[in-house]
């Protein structure tokens, strides 16, 4: 199945957005340990690596956009030249939904599949009996498409608030616009498997999310959730206080508070707590580190690191734009300067930063 034909939002006529006032005062940002934007802009910019653009364009050339649709759902908010989902009530997303970010999401799907050893799930599913599956916040829909390809007898639904999924998909996949923070529209006991991956900074209430998952999961069915942390640690102290990688964590932590949607369900253990409170049983999980880059001596960790770095570098500014602009009031060139320092540290072989990931699953009792 050619899954490269993501619908392009290029034909959209974006809704002009006025730059909102920064949510965080300079004093509050300083209290949260966030250095002012001028700190990054004042330092000499690291030289761009000559091969950065080559890598990006090689990957881009593999991916293509084929379709364009016009409807109000394709009228996106814009912030500093990037487009964002602009419809469905108040489900305001921090991730761009333009082509560059779509490419990053597609690489992320490969990265997360590498994290699970090439598997699409870790729950102990009886796959022959799986008839109906949902992927909540499906993004570009590649997980749903791969699952549908592998299990053609299953009906797979992918949901999102933004229509960036391809139109050329297996016959047993469909995509629906659905806000995961609202009451879900399906009847109870609908799904054999509910897949929820990387909804950090998306979910308003993880307990409510797992309550809806429990309600719509069939007895005996499974719900699985995959999250990463949004800060970098190092075992050897190479991620130093005040460095760009250290600041990265502070920025996302404050971003989550301002949005009212945490970027750190891992550390808050919200997967286990939410699943337990909802009633799931046999809760289990797999933890791992995800380095940035290939520095890790363990081959599997290094492979995860290669793809994580590719994912983030494909659209680093896209990941940071909304939070830095809307929360901190940074100018585009200041966000760019910060990105250059982040990239420099990722490319420094003496800096050994990593994030953590947890894949957790639970069964709804019969
Ligand atoms: C980091 S991406 C993860 C995509 C996909 N789950 C994956 O792992 O490849 C987060 C996705 O959540 C979607 N999203 C944001 N807010 C949402 C909401 N309220 N309900 C459903 N999806 C939402 C975004 O549009 C984006 O596609």
From TrEMBL:
* InterPro entries, A to Z: SAM-dependent_MTases_sf
Presence of the UniProt keyword Nucleus in the record = no
Q: Which Pfam families match?
A: Methyltransf_23
Q: Name one GO molecular function term.
A: methyltransferase activity
Chain segments annotated as coiled-coil in the UniProt record: none
One of the GO BP terms on file: methylation
Q: Which UniProt keywords apply?
A: Methyltransferase, Transferase
**Does Transferase count among this protein's keywords?**
yes
Q: Which domain of life is it from?
A: Eukaryota
Q: Which Gene3D superfamilies match?
A: Vaccinia Virus protein VP39 (3.40.50.150)
* Protein family membership: Belongs to the methyltransferase superfamily. LaeA methyltransferase family.
Name of the protein in its database record: S-adenosyl-L-methionine-dependent methyltransferase
């Amino acid at each position: 199945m050619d899954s490269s034909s993501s619908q392009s939002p290029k034909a959209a006529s974006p809704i002009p957005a006025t730059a909102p006032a920064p949510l965080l005062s300079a004093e509050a940002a300083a209290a949260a340990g966030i250095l002012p934007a001028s700190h990054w802009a004042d330092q000499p910019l690291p030289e761009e690596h000559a091969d950065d653009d080559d890598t990006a364009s090689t990957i881009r050339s593999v991916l293509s956009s084929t379709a364009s649709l016009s409807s109000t759902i394709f009228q996106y908010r814009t912030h500093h030249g990037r487009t964002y989902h602009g419809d469905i009530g108040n489900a305001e997303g921090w991730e761009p939904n333009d082509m560059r970010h779509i490419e990053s999401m597609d690489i992320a799907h490969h990265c997360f599949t590498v994290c699970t050893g090439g598997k699409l799930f870790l729950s102990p599913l009886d796959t022959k009996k799986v008839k109906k599956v949902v992927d909540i916040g499906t993004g570009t829909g590649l997980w749903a498409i791969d699952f549908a390809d592998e299990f053609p007898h299953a009906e797979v639904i992918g949901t999102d608030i933004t229509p960036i999924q391809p139109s050329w998909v297996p016959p047993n996949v469909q995509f629906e616009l659905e806000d995961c923070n609202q009451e879900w529209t399906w009847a109870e006991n609908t799904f054999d498997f509910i897949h929820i991956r990387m909804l950090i900074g998306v979910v308003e209430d993880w307990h409510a999310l797992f309550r809806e998952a429990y309600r719509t999961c069939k007895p005996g069915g499974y719900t699985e959730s995959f999250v990463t942390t949004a800060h970098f640690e190092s075992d050897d102290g190479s991620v130093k206080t005040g460095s760009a990688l250290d600041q990265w964590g502070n920025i996302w932590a404050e971003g989550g508070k301002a949005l009212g949607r945490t970027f750190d369900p891992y550390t808050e253990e919200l997967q286990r707590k939410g699943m337990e409170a909802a009633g799931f049983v046999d809760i289990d999980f797999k933890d791992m580190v995800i380095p940035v880059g290939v520095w890790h001596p363990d081959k599997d960790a290094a492979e995860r690191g290669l793809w994580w770095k590719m994912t983030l570098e494909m659209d680093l500014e896209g990941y940071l734009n909304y939070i830095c602009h809307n929360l901190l009031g940074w100018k585009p060139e200041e966000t760019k300067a910060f990105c250059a320092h982040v990239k420099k540290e990722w490319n420094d072989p003496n800096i050994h930063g990593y994030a953590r990931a947890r894949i957790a699953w639970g069964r709804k009792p019969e």
